[in-house]
Design a protein that fits this description.
Number of helices: 11
Strand content: 15-25%
Order of helices and strands: HHHEHEHEHEHEHEHHEEHEEEE
CATH superfamily of the largest domain: NAD(P)-binding Rossmann-like Domain
Shape: elongated
Largest sheet: 6 strands, parallel
CATH class of the largest domain: Alpha Beta
CATH topology of the largest domain: Rossmann fold
Number of domains: 3
Radius of gyration: 31 Å
Number of strands: 12
Distance between the termini: 55 Å
Strand order of the largest sheet: 3-2-1-4-5-6
């Protein structure tokens, strides 16, 4: 039950109990009739038998009329609001599902907790199309209220995969707080989309090892990463700030460029980077066959299939 409806229902029960006890004790009315009088007063139904005969009864009935009527209106408005939201939510979800089925190259974030929210926020800030899914309805509702396209799914199986159009997605971030769920989601994703790029969080080194063994090349342990960053802030604060400026693109642009067979950089030395991309561009490294080569020499030759990591200053 919705928490608002639960609160409203409890409030109604308290008011009804107050009215029933009051009519029984103050006006000496039988229990069942006391209940009827209370509901009648709350729903503004007129009945001659409710007319108070004593000062105590007048005071009690006045309070019940005010509190009861307000409580009744509040409860009914909550019910109407929840029903309308449910209908609109179902309509919106159907519309979103049709929209997602037409998507290609989007990113899926599985998990709408703190980590998943941060991933979705960063992807959206970079102009990417993001679809969020989670097994927790409250987290999904929170993401929807923040403007994200989010769905509640039981698991990333065939039905869940269809909901987020896993087959056409470019990348998948596994951000559920449960390692077993992330492992299951990865295996299911590989069955549907063998070429999808997958990144994952892990709670323990063992889970990270299992994910690596299964084929997830990029796995982080949030607690370990946070600890290392705090240590770097203490020991190498300036270097850390520079790295964060690059990653957060504060005054710089970090770009990846895949070198194809027909690219100008194919089979060219690193020294040609600025001639081709501009003098404000710096090559800080390149990725080749699963290995990252940082600080390349000017005479190193770039080959087709390499991914260049470029930094360009906005100033």
């Amino acid at each position: 039950m919705d928490r608002r409806v639960r609160f409203g229902t409890i409030l109604m029960m308290v008011v009804i109990s107050y009215g029933t006890l009051g009519f029984h004790w103050v006006s000496q009315v039988p229990w069942l009739l006391s209940l009827y009088y209370t509901v009648a007063v709350m729903s503004t139904v007129s009945d001659p038998g409710i007319s108070p005969k004593t000062p105590e009864a007048v005071l009690f009935t006045t309070v019940l009329v005010i509190v009861g009527t307000m409580g009744w209106i509040f409860w009914v408005s909550l019910l109407v609001s929840v029903i309308v939201e449910t209908d609109l939510g179902a309509f919106q979800e159907k519309r979103w599902k049709r929209r997602v089925m037409r998507m290609k190259g989007h990113f899926i974030v599985l998990g709408a907790g703190q980590v998943g929210h941060s991933i979705a926020s960063e992807l959206r800030d970079q102009g990417e199309t993001v679809v969020v899914a989670d097994t927790d309805r409250e987290r999904v509702t929170r993401m929807i209220h923040e403007g994200y396209m989010a769905f509640h799914i039981e698991r990333l199986d065939q039905d869940g995969g269809e909901t987020v159009n896993l087959a056409s997605a470019r990348g998948l971030a596994l951000a559920l707080p449960d390692d077993a769920q992330n492992l299951y989601a990865y295996l299911s994703a590989r069955d549907v989309n063998p070429h999808i790029l997958v990144v994952a969080r892990a709670q323990t080194p063992q889970a990270a090892h299992y994910l690596n063994t299964l084929g997830v090349e990029r796995v982080i342990l949030p607690d370990v990463v946070s600890g290392r960053r705090l240590a770097h802030m203490l020991v190498k604060p300036v270097a850390h700030d520079l790295l964060m400026a690059i990653l957060n693109e504060e005054g710089v642009q970090l770009t990846e460029v895949l070198v194809s067979e027909g690219s100008q950089m194919a089979n060219q030395p690193v020294g040609q980077v600025r001639q081709i991309f501009g003098h404000d561009v710096t090559l800080i490294g390149y990725w080749r066959e699963g290995l990252t080569h940082m600080g390349p020499k000017a005479q190193d030759v770039i080959k087709p299939g390499d991914t260049l990591i470029l930094v360009q200053s906005d100033r």
